[in-house]
Amino acid sequence: MGMVGGGQLARMSQSAAIALGVRLAVLAAQLDDAAAQVVPATTVADEKALADLRAFAQQCDVITFDHEHVPPVHLRSLQAAGHVVRPSAEALIHAQDKAVMRSRLTSAGIPCPRHRIVFDPGDVVAFSAELNASAFSELSGAAASQAGDSIGLTNHPGLKTPVMLKTTRGGYDGKGVWIVRCADDAAEPFKAGVPVLAEELVNFRRELAAVVVRSPSGQAVTYPVVESVQRDGICVEVVAPAPSLPGRLAVEAQRLALAVAAELDVVGILAVELFETSDGRLLVNELAMRPHNTAHWSIDGAITSQFENHLRAVLDLPLGSPQAHAPYAVMVNVFGGELPEVYSAYRHCMSRDPALKIHWYGKTVRPGRKVGHVTVLGDDVEDLRERARHAAGYLRGDVDE
Ligand code: ADP
Fold first, then answer.
1. What is the pLDDT of residue 143?
2. pLDDT, position 300
3. Would you tell me which of 4, 11, 33, 253 could form a disulfide with 210, CB atoms 3.0–4.6 Å apart?
4. What is the rounded CA–CA span in Å between residue 82 and residue 69?
5. From the alpha carbon of 235, which atom of ligand 1 is closest?
6. Angle of helix 89-96 relative to helix 247-264, nearest 10 degrees?
7. Residue 97 per-residue DSSP state
8. Which residue, 361, 377, 368, 375, is CA-closest to 396?
9. Cα distance between residue 61 and residue 45, in whole Å
């Protein structure tokens, strides 16, 4: 199996590949990439160059990905040349292009935030006015003006309702996403010269993720629906399953994710990022078609990890049980901090909490860089959060005892 991309997702896939007896090959940008360090069959090449992709595909029975950055046109070329690409170019485009994703999901009846493709700041102002009109038509006069005042909308006469703008391609970890509250702010997103997607700013209670895995034969399994905590557009913490999620919403989230997987003919992991709105609805935010940060807990917390199930699905093997080992799992990402040398912190965390599982990605520590994650399992969510946050903070250098 060939995996394009040499990051931590490919690195963690290698553990699953070893256990399954699958020979994993990786196309990495550099020899010291996280996966390149642990996968002997690593090719250092350019994932955006068709010739490099072709040469890599020659050595593999099937190609899959640890990211969404391979140009769609190259994926179609590989398929046309007879290479097996999973997920296919036709499915993957929905994780690569937010405009394509929104339009396809909406026409399939999947609930999404209200949205519009916009071409200039004037379109943004017009879209905001429409959102404002529809929001206010749902409220009676006095309640409407109170609602407007409470979120400061009357301070921005140019834009009565704030709007979320997103670059349609190439955004990640909150890069390529802007909250626009006044007409002047609407200019920046158009500077890159790529189409921009405008969305209503969803008033959500929290963010959820429904992760499913689907094989070419059409078998699919769903992991428990998780709560994902984001800071500055980056996932920092995941609780599996999402605490106090009403059963009705958990089932609906899983059905939505299965419906999307079937509709788009996804093979492998599909992560559906969702908003749980303050009035108890689910809206799809975005899709990922590769192992996803919101299911890292499954390495330690489920019978079959998302990495193993991704490999099984891509090889069209029967899928493994996604059942959790404990009532709750909490995963907290470790970001690099100012700590120049983490070894003593690493030893400290292991000895302080022997039940804590530490995953280290082999990356050079730099401030803000995602360098690992920790997971703890148990039945008391607050205790698990405290332990996992403490370890991640300690490894970052934020906690000193
Ligand atoms: P990325 O591709 O960077 O992951 P996302 O579309 O997931 O971009 O947006 C990043 C974060 O911005 C989301 O996790 C969420 O917190 C917030 N966000 C995105 N879209 C909306 C929206 N329509 N309303 C409110 N918040 C949003």
1. 44
2. 98
3. 253
4. 21
5. 14
6. 130
7. B
8. 368
9. 19
Pairing between β-strand 226-231 and β-strand 234-240 as defined by DSSP bridges: antiparallel
In sequence order, which residues have a C-beta less than 8 Å from that of residue 6 and are 6 or more positions away? 26, 27, 28, 29, 30, 33, 34, 35, 36, 39, 42, 66
Amino acid letter, 14:
Q
User: Is 201 near ligand 1, meaning CB less than 6 Å away?
Assistant: yes
Report the residue among 165, 285, 289, 293 best suited for mutation to probe ligand 1: largest number of ligand atoms under 8 A from its CB. Answer: 285
CB of 7 closer than 6 A to ligand 1? no
Preceding amide of 243 cis, omega within 30: no
The answer to whether the bond into 224 is cis (omega within 30° of 0) is: no
Q: What digits encode the pLDDT tens for the residues 121-180? A: 899 999 999 998 887 555 444 443 444 443 344 444 457 789 999 999 877 777 889 999
What's the confidence (pLDDT) of residue 377?
98
**What one-character-per-residue DSSP string does 159-213 give?**
-SS-EEEEESBS-BTTBTEEEE-SGGGGSGGGTT-S-EEEEE---EEEEEEEEEE
How far is C-alpha 347 from the chain's CA centre?
30
Structure-token pair, residue 137: 């038509």
Token pair, residue 370, equals 């995602």
Burial of 80 (0-12, 13-18, 19+ CB in 10 A): exposed
- Ranges of residues in the chain with a pLDDT under 50 are 139-157
Q: Which residue's CA is minimally distant from atom 19 of ligand 1?
A: 285
- If you measure from the C-alpha of residue 392 to the centroid of ligand 1, how many angstroms do you get, rounded to a whole number? 24
* Residue 1: predicted pLDDT: 98
Residue 296's alpha-carbon distances to 8, 52, 73, 155, 312, in angstroms, are 11, 30, 30, 42, 17
Query: What pLDDT score was predicted for residue 146?
Result: 45
- Class of residue 231 by CB neighbours under 10 A (exposed 0-12, middle 13-18, buried 19+): exposed
